[in-house]
Every structure is written in structure tokens, then in C-alpha cells.
Amino acid sequence: GLVSVTLPGGLASINDSTFFGCSSLASIDIPGEVTAIGRSAFYGCSGLATIAIPDGVASIEDNAFSGCGGLVSVTLPKGLKLIDSKVFSDCSSLASIDIPGEVTTIGNGAFWGCRGLTSINIPDGVTLIEDNAFRGCSGLVSVTLPKGLTMIDRRVFAECSSLVSIDIPDEVTTIGSSAFWYCSSLTSINI
Fold it and tell me: What would the pLDDT profile of 109-155 be if each residue is shown by its tens digit?
């Protein structure tokens, strides 16, 4: 199967499902001119271990890297404002991720099933974390929530079975149903 790809300079976008299911793809260089990565563009590319997304990329659509089970590290672009729905769902080897300070929204199921994540620092600019965002992140031990967060949506941390404690920011007025469902190690919640 396809093992490596060199994309041409001047490429503006990687369209929907471009590399869908290319499980042998081990490396790809995304040109600096790319501004958008489409829906399911790299879905199921389980051979990818690392990916650097250039700073010019302003849009990464839903499921873009879903099911990339071999992905260990990702460099996100500094200007990114939205981590869309299920962008990194089932990236079970993803060990860490730095969420850029410009991000305001973490979409539905964005990191669902990222069992390798042990900690995550969510920058203060994030005001919305949607349903299931970190559901099934069973290795997650610690989370730093942003000060501007007003709501913890439904099932955001459901099945985070290693999460021991969490500090809920003062601004949070709503905690959605099953937000901490099956968090079997949770011993402390500071509200």
C-alpha cells in the first residue's frame, strides 16, 4: 500500500476523504500553503506516527484524523480556533497534545477514545467543550480546565477511568448529564 506522500507546493487544501483508509501511510509532509484539511481526510491512517500541521491551516474538519491508531504526536497550527467533531477520535496511541491558545471550541467527541492521553491542559481561551469530547480517554489522569468555561457538556469525561481529581472553574454554571459517568478512580471534585 501507499507508504509515503509528498504533496506539491501551492496546494491549498487536502479535501474530504483524500487518504481515507490508507493504513500503510507512514509519513506525509503537509505543505505550508495548505489552509484546510477536509472531513475524514486521514481517517484510518493507522500507520501515521507523527504529523505536523502547518500554521497556515485554519480549518481541520470532523473526523480528519479519526482512527489513526498509531498516531503518537501531533503539532497543531497556532491560529486554529476549532478542534472539530471527532477530529482525533480513536487515536489510541496519542500520548500528548498541545492545544493552541487561539482555540475556543473543542468539538463533540474530538478526543473520544484517546486512551494514551494521560494529561491535557486546555487553554483559557476555550469557552466550549462539547459532548463526549474526552469520553473514553481511559489513561487520562489530570485535566486543567479553562477559567472561561461556563458549562461541562454531556459525557465530556465519561469513561475516563483513570481520572483521579478535577477542579471545576468558578464560572461553570452547568454540568451536563453523565459528565463523569464511569470515572471509577475519581476521588475528588473541587467545585
Answer: 999 999 999 999 999 999 999 999 999 999 999 999 999 899 999 99
CA 179 vs CA 28, 41, 183: distances in Å:
36, 30, 9
CA-CA distance, 174 to 187, in Å (whole number)? Answer: 20
| Dihedral over alpha carbons 166, 160, 104, 56 (to 10 degrees) | 130
Per this entry, what is the length of the chain? 191
Whether 144 and 124 have beta carbons less than 8 Å apart is answered as: no
Cell of 108: 463533540
Q: Which three cell numbers stand for residue 23?
A: 493504513
Contact 59, 87 (CB under 8 A): no
Contact 76, 53 (CB under 8 A): yes
Give the separation between CA 6 and CA 159, rounded to whole angstroms.
Answer: 39
Cα–Cα distance for residue pair 152/49, rounded to 1 Å:
31
Question: How far, in Å, CA of 111 to CA of 21, rounded?
Answer: 19
Q: Which amino acid is at 43?
A: Y
